[in-house]
Amino acid sequence: MSKIQEVADLVERGKAKLVGKAVQEALDEGCDAAEILNVGMIGAMAVVGEKFKNNEIFVPEMLVAARAMKKGVEVLKPHLASGSTGALGKLIIATVAGDLHDIGKNLVAMMIESAGFEVIDLGVDVPAEKIIECYRENPDTKVIALSALLTTTMPSLRDTVAALNASDFRGNIKIMVGGAPITQAFADEIGADGYSTDAASAATLAKQLVSAE
Ligand code: B1M
User: Residues near ligand 1 with C-beta < 6 Å?
Assistant: First the structure.
């Protein structure tokens, strides 16, 4: 079994204690950090999701796989992110109310930070009021980035964007959205300024949004 396959297997089986070591070994063998992330870890989570959908595993197994992935990302982080200066300004990121998924949002935050933003991460299950309050405390914020992973929290994303669109500071910020069920068409429909499919393109989009100001 290749090292990347081993990482995938450990994430899938939720072996949090072993994943970090396997990721380090894969790096030492010269494997590309992005490939370890995309093939080894995100690929494994896709398998976990499929198994959940088919009732082969249940929520606890998804949870341990998520924990294992987080351990692996900790080891990978210095190899993916090149360090932050905050030169591009502040960006607030959150997973919307009702949604507890944070792995994708964390990867997006990591890539955006390494692109040069100062990232304020409000976590998961974040109501619009909390995001607005955070903006008021940080009025130099340039971008608000929102993640939603469930079809059932797409309305929550819509409501959050609507609340931001109705705010008196709307002209000072750009809103970007993403997450597996989100599409460009949905982003346009709810009045966001941008949408991207993955963490790397989210960083590019954030930069584009501030340079288009
Ligand atoms: Co949940 N879950 N889950 N889950 N879970 C999914 C999302 C699901 C697809 C599994 C399935 O059925 N196949 C399904 C959703 C189905 C749907 O909505 N149609 C699902 C379900 C149903 C649920 C529950 C309802 C299960 C239940 O309780 N019966 C429940 C809901 C809880 C809640 O949120 N209220 C639930 C719970 C959980 C856990 C808590 C156990 C755990 C999350 C732990 C955690 O995050 N800390 C979990 C997990 C692990 C998953 C899967 C297996 C993996 C998610 C993940 O981390 N993917 C997932 C199946 C899957 O994704 N294939 C599943 C890897 C991650 C890197 O990808 O998050 O897509 P992703 O992020 C990507 C892009 O989407 C994008 O970039 C990221 C990096 O490339 N992106 C952005 C994300 N945010 C962005 C923002 C941007 C731009 C891009 O700009 C701002």
Answer: 42, 45-46, 48-49, 52-53, 59, 62-63, 65-66, 98-105, 107-108, 145-147, 149-152, 176-181, 196, 198-199, 202
